[in-house]
Write a structure and sequence with these properties.
By secondary structure, the chain is an alpha/beta fold. It has helices at 12-21, 32-37, 49-58, 61-71, 80-84, 188-200, and strands at 2-5, 26-29, 40-43, 75-78, 103-107, 118-123, 125-126, 141-146, 148-152, 158-163, 167-174, 177-180. An eight-stranded mixed beta sheet has the order 2-1-3-4-12-11-10-7.
């Protein structure tokens, strides 16, 4: 069963629908025990960093997420869910994030001809060994909607990047923790394959 963490953020239902389309059993929940019992856990969402952390704290989910990670359960952050895994964001100065991964969330710098938010399809440059990208070709196009981007401290955890005025660390992997800035659930066939790859992690030695 794949638990999708419900913390009143936007875009959660689209992830649930994509997984159900793929045939996976899902549970949209904020219940501590159900999340810990899940085989895989996803933290999706769109919205602001500060509001999201306030809700995660309000629902007691920050420690639940840390416990899931400590337990070794495959965990995937999507869009805002990626950003929340880091210690801080320029969007909400002084608001501590989960601090599970090392890096900083920065605002995409303004530039002539560059629209912010970064919204639409962009290609990924793959590092070649990311488990989310098994059987995914380099330069695959995926769908982004964001104004802030990850600048990872350890570039060794970056498994996919994209260019949009700056180099965006678009997907990271560290142990059982995975995250992507783009929306796999909105990225057509290749995006669904990434979700299926995540659901396969921990099975068949993957």
């Amino acid at each position: 069963m794949i638990a999708i963490i419900d913390y009143d953020a936007g875009n959660i239902r689209s992830v649930e629908k994509a997984l159900m389309h793929l045939g996976y059993e899902t549970c949209l929940t904020r219940d501590h025990d159900r999340i810990l019992q899940a085989d895989h856990v996803i933290l999706p969402g769109v919205g602001s960093f500060g509001d999201a952390m306030e809700r995660l704290n309000q629902y007691g989910l920050t420690e639940t997420i840390r416990e899931v990670v400590r337990k070794g359960t495959p965990f995937l952050g999507i869009c805002l869910g990626l950003q929340l895994l880091f210690a801080e964001s320029e969007e909400a100065p002084g608001v501590p994030g989960l601090g599970i991964l090392a890096g900083r969330i920065r605002r995409i710098p303004a530039a002539e001809g560059l629209k912010i938010p970064h919204m639409g399809w962009n290609s990924l440059h793959l590092s070649g060994d990311g488990r989310l990208f098994r059987d995914i070709p380099d330069d695959t196009y995926v769908y982004f909607v964001h104004s802030y981007y990850l600048d990872a401290e350890d570039k060794g955890i970056v498994k996919a990047s994209a260019e949009y005025g700056v180099t965006i660390d678009a997907s990271v992997e560290q142990g059982n923790v995975f995250a992507c800035q783009f929306h796999p659930e909105k990225s057509s066939t290749m995006g669904l394959r990434m979700l299926s790859n995540f659901a396969s992690i921990g099975k068949e030695g993957i």
